Amino acid sequence: MPWSSPDGAWPLTRGQSYAPATSPSSHTAAATAGYAPASAPTTGGASPAQPYAWPAPGSWSGGAPPEAAAGRQPRGRRRRGVGAGVVVLLVLVALLAGLVLGALGARWLWPSTSSGSALPASSSTVSTSRAPESVAGIAAAALESTVFIEVFGGDTASSGSGMVLREDGYLVTNNHVIDAAADGGGTVAVTLADGTQLPAEIVGRTADYDLAVLKVDQDGLTPLPLADSDAVVVGDPVVAVGAPLGLEGTVTSGIISALNRPVQAGSSGEGASFINAIQTDAAINPGNSGGPLINTAGEVIGINTAIAQAGGQQTGSIGLGFSIPSNQVRRTAEQIIETGRATYPVIGVALDTRYQGEGVQVLQDDAGASTPAVTPGGPGDEAGIEPGDVITHFDGQPVTTPSELIVAVRSRAPGDTVVLTVQSDGGQEREVEVVLDEAGSD
């Protein structure tokens, strides 16, 4: 990519020369012609080109001086005999002596460390090794296990990132990265860190968690370990690795900005992903999706999946990136590898998205709805939740929007028991225990 200056004057043309700086107009002649060489005195006085000239013979009034008329050696002849050539010679000698003494002084003040260089050279040994916990150390290990994913579906193509999950060729990425090639609609190509490009099979995927597992026919890969994302705290340093805008092997760094951030990615209807996300200020851009977010121990704490957009406009990173916690990645990836599909937990109630009051309200009237307000025989029904009830807390944490409640539920596993704080129509508040059921993910 050629660089240019703000005014467009760069780059310079090879061989172009610069005109010397022009002096003020009063000195133009001297700057152009230089100083005229010393010459013998001439009749008529000093020439303007000479800084000084001796008086010409015969310039005294009354003719020749008395000494010449008497035939004696004129007084002052010896002084006039010191010609301009002797003066120039003396000046040159003085200049030469100054240069020699100046050079000797410079060598004494700044002794040269090498005979062929005018600048001192570093005496330290160059090393590219870095501490494993440094950003460079983390990147060196993570880049080997991060892959570049290209998807070709019909007349469209897209790209994203992924990471090695197991040494026998299993990889994990986002569902939205490979969605265009799902159900036989296209192909997926994976480029490994060494440049090897391989076709990939989609083992399984889930739009609910925005995760997908791929398989390539390659053994001996280096997997990245999954950390316990429940041990992450705000302020922890992290490194994001991926291929933003197709730029493979890109590394950015930052910190954990927030935890348990409810994020709804994708459309608001079918195919929407609800993520109890880790928020980071590490730069994440389109194409980073599916790449790992790594702690200082070199372990994956999340899979990068979404970024906030200012004003709803498609932009680059504004310091608000979101990752799927590694505990969720582990649970879902293991399900997909074992069964080819994933499940997610449910409480068996439908929520009213039009409700504006405190908490989250269960539908009062499910007429025309695709699902009943309270699923008969479901977890909510068995816990005593009724249509129109308002859920204000989930395991002691307040919930204010349907997305927050859905994300909180999906951060758990089927079979877990959770406590909901519920208000009935009369305003009476109670706590109920709900054993989460499971539903199959598309």
How is this structure best described in words?
The protein is α+β, with helices and mostly antiparallel strands and 442 residues long. Among the domains are: 82 residues, Thrombin, subunit H (Beta Barrel); 111 residues, Trypsin-like serine proteases (Thrombin, subunit H, Beta Barrel); 98 residues, Pdz3 Domain. Strands 1-2-3-6-5-4 form a 6-stranded antiparallel beta barrel. The N terminus is likely disordered. A hairpin with a 5-residue loop joins strand 2 and strand 3. The two termini are 44 Å apart. The chain is 18% helix and 27% strand.
List the helices and strands and how they pair.
Blueprint: H1 28-33, H2 66-69, H3 77-80, H4 84-109, H5 135-143, E1 146-153, E2 156-164, E3 170-173, H6 175-178, E4 187-191, E5 197-206, E6 211-216, E7 237-242, E8 250-265, E9 273-280, E10 292-294, E11 300-307, E12 321-325, H7 326-339, E13 343-346, E14 360-361, H8 379-383, E15 390-394, E16 397-398, H9 402-410, E17 417-423, E18 429-435, E19 437-440
Antiparallel strand pairs: 1-2, 1-4, 2-3, 3-6, 4-5, 5-6, 7-8, 7-10, 8-9, 9-12, 10-11, 11-12, 13-19, 14-15, 15-16, 15-17, 17-18
Domain PDZ: 348-426
Pfam families: PDZ_2, Trypsin_2
Protein name: Trypsin-like peptidase domain-containing protein
